[in-house]
Amino acid sequence: MFRRTLTLTRIPKVHHFSRRWSSTATLRQRTWPTMAALTLTAGVAGYYALQPVGYAHAEAPAYKGSVEDEATQLPFPIHLNTNNEWKRLIGLGVRTVTFLKMNVYVIGMYMKKDDIEALKSLEGWKNFEQATFLETSELAESLLEQPYEISLRLVPARATNTQHLRDGFLRLLMQRMKDQSMTEEEEREALKAMQEFKSNFVSMNVKKNSEFIFTKTKEGGLRMSYEGKDWGTVENAWLAKNFVMSYLEPKAPSSEAALHDIALGFQTLLKGEQ
What we know:
It holds the Pfam family Chalcone_2. One of its GO terms (molecular function) is intramolecular lyase activity. Residues 88-262 form the Chalcone isomerase domain. Helices cover 34% and strands 24% of the residues. The chain has 274 residues and is α+β, with helices and mostly antiparallel strands. A 7-stranded antiparallel sheet has the order 4-5-6-7-10-11-12. It has a 3-stranded antiparallel sheet with strand order 1-2-3, with no helix packed on it. Strands 8-9 form a two-stranded antiparallel sheet. The protein is globular and about 45 Å long.
C-alpha cells in the first residue's frame, strides 16, 4: 500500500496530517426573536468559532477493519452497522478550535455499498472529479437530494458534554439558515425542527472516544444515536440535509480535513483509484 497526501496552496497556514489504515439571503428580522429562544450562549458560540487545521489521508493498513486519524489517534471502523444495515466509510477528519489549538471531535461519513454504486449513474457523479467536489456545492447538494442513507459518525477527541456539542450544531444550522433565502413558513418549520433536535439531546458528560451517529434517512429525517442508544428522529428534510451539508459545503466546511478526505474517498471508490 502507499501513502497519499494532498497539498492545497490556497489555504494558508495549514498543517498536513495523514490517516493510516489500521486492520438566504439574510434572514428577516422577524425570525431572530424565535431563534434566540434556542438559547445559545455567547460563550458557547465563541468556543465553537472553529476553524479546521490538517487533513486525514493515507492508505497503509496496520490492523484490519479500521482507519486511524493521525491528528487524534482515534480509530474509525471501515464498515459501520447502523439500524441493521452496513455502510462503508467514505472519509473522515478532525474539527479543531484553531485559536486554542484544540481538537474537538473527528467526523466520518458512511454510505451503503449499493448507494455508492448508484452514484455512478447519477448526473454529475458519472465522471466524478475531486476538484469539482471541493470547489462547488452542487455535487453534495445533488447527493443529499437522493433517497440514500448517509451516516455521520462523530467521536469526541476529549471529554466534553452534550450541551457544548448540541449548541455547536445549532449554531452551524442557524448560520446556514441565515445564509439561505426562505419563506416565512420554511423558516418556521426549520426553527421547529431545530427545537426538536435540541430537545432530543440528553444532558450529560461525554467521554473521549464515545460514539454519536447522525443519519440522514431515506425518508429525509435526521436520526440520532449515542453509544447505540436511539435518541430519536427529527422528520424534517431541511434539518437532515443542512446538518450533513455543514460538513460538505466547500465555502465554509465544519471540518476542512473531513471535506478533503471525503472528496478523496469518493474519488477512490467511484473511479477505482488507489
